Amino acid sequence: MTQPEAPEAHLPPRSDRTMEEYIPRLARNRPQLVRLAECLSLAAGVERPLLRRARLRFLPRSSAGLEAELWFSPLVEAASEHSLVLDPAAAAVLRRRLALRPRQFVQDVRDMMVEAHLGAQPVARWFEDLLWADLFPATSTPEYIEEQLRRVLHAVTATGAAGDEVGRWALHYVPRLPSGVRRYDDAWRIQVASSERLGLAPPVDDFPRPPGVTAGARALVQRDIPVGVVARSDGLVLSCPPVDGVRTVSAPGVRTARIEVASVLAPRSAPVRLELGEHQSVRLPFTVVQRLSTNGEPTQGIAHLGNADEVAVASGAVGEGARYAVLLADGTIVLHADDGTERGRLPAEDGGPPRKSLSVLADGRFLAWIEGGTAITYEVASGRLDAHEREWDAALFVRFTLSHTVRLVQLGIGDGQLLLDRGRHMVSWAEATPVRTLWLSQDGECAAFIDGSGVLRIEGPWELEGAGAPDVTAVTSTADAVSVAWAYADGTVCARVIGDDQRLVDCGAAPWQITSLAMSDDGRWIAAVGGDSRLLLWELVDGAAVPHVRRLAFCADRVFALPGGEWVVSGTGGPVELTTDDGRQYVVTPDTEALSHPVDVPGWIRGEVIAVVRAGRDPVTFVDLAEAMASIRAVGVTCLTVGPITPTGSGDVEGIPGEEIPGSLGDFGGFASLLMSAHHHGVRIVVDMDLRAVYAVGRILNSMRQWLDHDVDGLRLVGDRRLDADVLRDVRHLLDGYDDRVLIGTHTTGLPATADSDFGATGAFVACDVVVRALQGELIIGLTEGALVRNALVNAQLPLGAARSGAQWGHLLPDDLTAPGRTALALRVLLGLPGCPIVPLSLLQNQDPEVSRMLELRRDHLALSRGDCHELPLSRPGLHGVVRRHGDEIVLCVANAGANREAIHVTPDDLGAPGDARLLDLFDGTVVPCTDNTPATVTVDAGAVRWYRLLPIPHTSGPGE
């Protein structure tokens, strides 16, 4: 049987009503044609031999022209050179007519089809069987139809290319089945599963189904597709498959992973639905607009997918107008009301001129922008658009002012000049120099521009000492233009406060070049941003400027002042929530604090889990480790220490002497292969240095230099030898000459209060990036008596106050935990504490999926690796918890050292979070409400650890809901 090529998508059939009216009329005029078509209506496809066979058998007195007439008739949906397919609506009418014929005649038609299609594809014969079963419903049981549908559903959901092929044919045939068959849920499941595995949208379902049928049908063919996620300062990059070294999330699918992406900072913004195919990556930048209270706390958020070209904010009291206007990259202008809800969109004309210089009237009633050189005004309430006569080129800046009547004040470059058009009069600068920034006061009376050389020029009723100064990057003023502030390229901010006593205030310097300034209405506060996650505020008090810093969850490059001391900042990035089709949720947070907190220790060591391989204890060689590196990395290990190495007296710089290599691990050739394999898989190698037998400082430093020259990622000092402070400082200076190398200090067993003396010298804390100590008694008592000792969580950090910025504790597992269950629990507890857990590689390779999951979560959640830590007071014996926080990210870690399952109730206030939220189980992805009125119930099995992340209120499907 020659089948027509199966289509990739279902085409809607012609109307049944049309065919029900057409075929009876055709039968009166061409009865033989309709009779022949009836005899073929039970066929999946009609080949030329079958067409001739049916004509000769059932219409023996007809001519061959009848075949051609049918071939080109409206009863045919598609025809190729060798076969045809009847129109589905026509075939349904023809089958009903056939059923009215004598039963023996109909049986002969069926027998002919079975005989003709003995060699056809199984799915075609299955289709014809169901057509026949539906022809006489009284003789066909529902069980038989269900069995036939299950056969094809099983074939469609099978793995491999065969399932794809069956799916293609199923999408062709199932929509052509009679409605009585298509009503069955399995008929719909076949279509959904076939569409899912082929990466298509399923056809329209004409019948009501129980909830969950469609999702369940997709799940029959879906598998977990790994998707790589990289958080950047402007948003996310998703890749399928993941690239090495990035966070991986799992989304159900076959060829396509479907993920909803929403900004956590804008809970009311609609999510973006993304379909990511194989060998595809996509960049998802987010533009964020956030409103801050007078004390810098976020009160409102708006987010749009993509990098916005411009953001404008109404600076006064807004009633029914627009508070925010966002110009997207495609030219669309999105308006938002004062409460953040979307008020409307102004799409750009396809292929039209670009829009630029967006601005909003102070009360939000009007907008203005430049489109094709023409100033366009838009009235929000009426939607009226007006084009103004003056032509401006690309450097135009426009603002509105309100003085009894609305008048447009325009500042820009036109006709080769820089012009200030106030409507009633015009000011021009003859020299049309390149312009970097244009600025107008709210009342339009004061104007300023910064030329291409950074020179600030002023037009207005006041004089400014800063005018004419070079390297100015930003300027702003109060709403009434009484006070003004400006910034220089080196970050210095100056303010001219004009009141009873005119004075110039030097506010100091920002740590970066300022991109935007704003000043409060009363002239008391100045705000600045510069492209990272800090909002700098200067309070002008008694002729001086008092600096303040507010942390943001995204990178801000614009700031605006609102009445009452509020601020609006806009920029890119911020935490993003991913939701997969099966309900799993992931929150990805860029490390904004890393951008704003430069530290003098390598960033990668902060919160790193360090796996240890020791000579004489682990029966493994360098070559063994190199060959196993893929599996080591697969379980989540990203840092490995090997050794110990004993320095020699050799000064050879071409290679490391063989006697420095412990015999149980191998020679340096094996180490070279280990290092190459580790770096290829994204694993860092730290070498253990045993200094017990070495006292010459030169020998120690020379050996360390040789290892660093061979590209190891750091050194760990092991053994009982304590170096004095001077030697440690020399070692520190040596490592500072190499990028991103770490020094891990000597093991101390003392309590935090005596850690300085136990380590050997106070200078040790100045030198080392990680100071190692064993929790020993604290952890053992905590696991056995049910109190995770406060010393292990808080006091352990106190001696590090004398350390270099970023230094931290490295925690060793106690040696006294002999029971396997206690060791496993202690490992899980360590993974939730601040600092660097240092554990044997064998414990991380014990095929425990939960430990691998915890390692992954530590990498993906900065609160678990870099956040602060405080104990959650719990009264249950054996149950203890800590709260980790990094920026806006809050994670609760609960451990149950008791013998019984325990449950506790948690509110946002318990976790130090304002307002209602949700609690996300990081292990299984379930989400429960967590409010002060409805506490979240946290259940932890005996000997288990659970981690939960606090999430904001879920987003709605639209901005107004």
Textual characterization of the structure:
This protein has 961 residues and is an alpha+beta fold. Among the domains are: 16-221, no CATH class; 599-860, TIM Barrel (Alpha-Beta Barrel); 868-961, Golgi alpha-mannosidase II (Immunoglobulin-like), CATH 2.60.40.1180. The protein is built from 26 helices and 53 strands. The strands form 12 sheets. Strands 42-41-40-39-38-45-44-43 form an 8-stranded parallel sheet. Strands 4, 5, 6, 9, 10, 34 and 35 form a 7-stranded antiparallel sheet that branches. Strand 32 and strand 33 (544-551) form a beta hairpin. It is globular, with a radius of gyration of 37 Å. The model is unreliable at 1-14, 650-661, 749-753, 755-761, 786-791 and 955-961 (pLDDT under 50).
Largest sheet: 8 strands, parallel
CATH superfamily of the domain at 599-860: Glycosidases
Residue-averaged pLDDT, rounded?
Answer: 80
Strands of the widest sheet, in order across it, are: 42-41-40-39-38-45-44-43
Number of E strands: 53
Flag low-confidence runs. 1-14, 650-661, 749-753, 755-761, 786-791, 955-961
Helix fraction, binned, reads 25-40%
Shape: globular
Number of helices: 26
InterPro entries: GH, Glyco_hydro_b, WD40/YVTN_repeat-like_dom_sf
